[in-house]
Amino acid sequence: xxxxxxxxxxLVQPGGSLRLSCAASGNISSIYIMGWYxxxxxxxxxxxxxxxxxxxxxxxxxxxxKGRFTISRDNAKNTVYLQMNSLQPEDTAVYYxxxxxxxxxxxxxxxxxxVSS
Length: 117
What we know:
The chain has strands at 2-7, 10-12, 18-26, 33-39, 46-52, 59-61, 69-74, 79-84, 93-100, 105-107, 111-115. By secondary structure, the protein is an all-beta fold. The strands form 2 sheets. Strands 2, 4, 5, 6, 9, 10 and 11 form a 7-stranded mixed sheet that branches. A hairpin with a 4-residue loop joins strand 7 and strand 8.
């Protein structure tokens, strides 16, 4: 089993920044990729960014996030971060941390990000 705990969400004004953290614990060695997804009200959950856990870390971003969001990892802390800049109201959503092993996907409880003036 793997447990994921997110933190760092909140209310921010348009153009502002937030950094989300996802701390993983448990059977970490089984995880080969971690990432962030988001779900806005009335919409499907969508990929934000993901990073592999081995080697240099291969990164993928959703096209709409490129240039504004940066995913990174600290393997020593078993933590993945999502730096979000130039936030806009359409970025308002619940952001979920995800970790995949070959057997299953794990999800955090989600953290709310609200972009509003």
